[in-house]
Input
Amino acid sequence: QRSPLNDYHRSKGVQLVRPSYWTQEMPFSEEDCAIHCTRTLSCRAFNYNLQSKQCQMLDWTSQETGTERQRHNHVDLYEKKDYMRECIVNKGVTYRGYRYITKSGKMCQHWSSNVPHEHRNSPSQFPRKGLDLNYCRNPDNDENGPWCYTTDWHTRLEDCGIKRCDEMECLMCNGEDYSGFVDHTESGRECQRWDLSYPHGHNYQPEKYPEKNLDNNYCRNPDGSRRPWCYTTDPAVEREYCNIRKCDGEHRLNDVEITKTCFKHNGVGYRGTINQTSARTPCQRWDKQFPHKHEFTPENYSCKGLEENYCRNPDGSEAPWCFTKDRGVRTAFCFQLERCNDDIEPEDCYTGNGTTYRGFVSKTRKGIPCQMWNTNSPHRPRVTPQTHPNAGLLKNYCRNPDGDSHGPWCYTSDPKVQWDYCAIRTCNGHAKSTNKEDPASVEFESCGRREDRPVENKKSR
Amino acid sequence: ILRGTPGNSPWTVSLRNREGKHFCGGSLVRRNWIISMKQCFSSCYAEFRGYEAWMGTILKDPRSDDPDKQAIPIRRAVCGPKHSNLIMLELERPATLNSRVALICLPPQGYIVPEGTSCEIAGWGETQGTGRDDVLNILVMPVISNNVCNRYYRGRLAETEICAGTVLRGFGACERDYGGPLACFTHSCWVLEGVIIPRRGCGRPNHPGIFVRVAMYVDWIKKVIEL
Output
């Protein structure tokens, strides 16, 4: 049940071009294209157009000089993994990387040349061995992996010292940021591609988890498991762990800020001592298996601070949580925990609701620079100096042209955040004013209506 | 919901994480906009791909082929003004309105709901054995004025909060109900007067429910939708 795409490394939204080079496009599915490319000796990659369902076979990869990766919404680039990896699988017989220096630093001799060393491994004699230029290769299944004849008269050949993929990168903590090339499980089964739902249907589609690097069929850890894993191409075995070595020395979470009195982002770095859920249910100790059995032990998750029974987030959930001491409630969030204030320090103050503010602050509360009021990029403003000529809409200064009761605001320079409030506070002694609509005059439209009827008892029905 | 009863609240939505697990509630205020609680999400600028709003069914775990269920991906979020605890979620596509999916009205800006007004909270959260765990539960509760409520909270209630419920033990919102609605029936319409926020404990005696007072943020809500 393996997909022919398993041999390829996909780059979404990218096409590979080489000036003045063109190959015939053929209408196929992605998998048909992969089969065709695999069978064609000279094919190293293909561009796949998702709209026209056509593929363009390429004799080169993005690793080669003279090629250019261009963004293209409807094209995905597939490149043979053997040309992309700078590490080897097993003995590296299929290695097609670009290393041309031996482990002692000697330059490799071209396979097509017999100087300085005469040999019989010529590319014309062994066209399937990938004997390109002077790259390290393993045409004879050598135990030490890829090698080459050297340009040193005194050293006929030497191996290149290319590491195995499962040794090249090591795991920190539970390997949640592992982005290496291992694509087989610890029992030797090949991994299923994350973007395919066969042989195993699953929830971890790469587009749902853009930050989890669910590339191709590489081992990953998107769910806070003990170590990287994958679905296997064996229909009888759904998922298995991968065997990747752990890094030596102290293990620490990368890019996670440790906090104690509040939590940031989703609280992976929270190390405070709150030990109850928001419903005041006491938490179960992480090192105990009662009342709930679990795998989140301090030994399995050494970087996650699973001390005592404190609220923690070892699996990347929405907020810190814990197993509860209540048999009927396995886990619960600790939403009562304060979220750290991530707003930047206010730089000025305003009175009333800020409609008269004419200061020079031009940043949102998150520190994003404001967009100029008189430009249309990145956002096309509905409030402009023309629509609100008396609102002081100069440059990109924070203003309150629409009388927003929550203070001055601006359109932001971040394409993803249209507008936001500014890094300004109310001046001491000046309470905010709210515009009140007259409740008596309010008329509701079509909302807020429902058919009140007895709830059907689905079970008995 | 503790001591709730199964019922119909067509504007109450279930927020589902990328594993499809219910983690918070929300209210449908426009066909493509939901209001919920900021704490339910790691950040206003987080990646929302894979998160969905489910509506149209009262079942907590409807079958995947349930014809009534609408599962709509969340496109993006906009966080409310400082200290509001509110978040607006934009949906990838508008919800289809029918007898099981409806919009709830927004109150007039700054409107103070009269004491004693009958309201209800709804959610798929914890029942702690007081009700059915597999369906949406609803609990009817009266509004308590901030003056009276402050007696139980030693004056800590803010103007931006609304109080409703009872001082008796064992009634009210609980885990995974957060973000859901406090809906009150006024002017012949159901109006979203509050958003359920986490408090210390569920159904504690002498601790009526405290909610975000939506009326204080209606101008912001409308602006987010309009802009």
